[in-house]
Amino acid sequence: MAGRTVRNRPSSLGTSRAVRIAAAAACASLVLTACGSTKDTASGGGGGGGGEGKVGVILPLLTSPFWQSYNDYVPKMAKSEDVDAMKTVNSNSDPSQQITDINNQLNQGVKGLVVAPLDSAAISAGLDQAERKGVPVVAVDVAPEKGKVAMVVRANNVAYGEKACAYLGKQVKTGKVVQIMGDLASVNGRERSEAFRTCVKKKYPKLKVLEIPAKWESDTAASKLDTLLNSNPDIKGIYLQAGGVYLAPTLQTLKSKKMLKKTGEKGHITVVSNDGIPQEFDAIRKGQIDATVSQPADAYAKYGMYYIKAAMNGKKFKPGPTDHDSTIVKLPSGILEDQLPAPLVTKENVDDSKLWGNTVK
Hints:
disordered N terminus; 9 helices; six-stranded mixed β-sheet; nine-stranded mixed β-sheet
């Protein structure tokens, strides 16, 4: 989710069925390019927001601990960035509802929007609505396939799949591994799936990948994993593309089949996850899972607010390294994306106080 020209600030600190919504072709909007430095304007509270106007914040869902944590961070980061953020809106895993939510926020007169898209294609209809009203949008966690956004704030999802592959490949030398995939209507689900699949094929050819399309749905993950284990009781590794929704059902399914063995015990199934939620850290400490990639919920909220404030003030950015250990890249669509760091967490560093999952109460 990289090089901006506002004051160098220290580094701080990631459902449902796809609904395809046709949208008119997008016109040109503001593109962020960067250089320079201005003084931080962080102040107390969402009040004036530096005079830019109110900002709407739209969540994809609140059934995942990851998005619950992001939701909790939003008002804190809005305050620190001096953004007048309205109460968050939950689209409840429904891409069509998300378009309605965007329209409702625009009708309330917001001057900026921070949206976590559910569907990479469907979101374009909402982006077109915002563009027609001259309202800049920052996308968090998911990059739109088309439409105009000022910035995408996101970690490198290809790296998620590659890190999970590398960890499993070192732990499991041969045999069957499973990836429980996200919604393939989302660029996140597609990138994690393809990166994991490609990495295994290239670097660990003795592993056989079995796949479960679970659409970010916990019930779907549980039922399909149960079925898969019935026919493949010799599975040696599992990659969870979203610990927030897949961790609990995976552990419960393994436990019900008496296959939940601790790290080091005979029959232990190596599990690598994504998200970096406290529940994953606890599972690592207990030896139930082995690793997770920490998706920065805190930084998603922080830089979502930072970039929407910058967009409302006409600030510009360009590809390159940032001052917060990330890199801004230009996507094939022409959109800029600030790719935030997402470290691998294992038993060796699970207690690191810098990890956001260790700061959540």
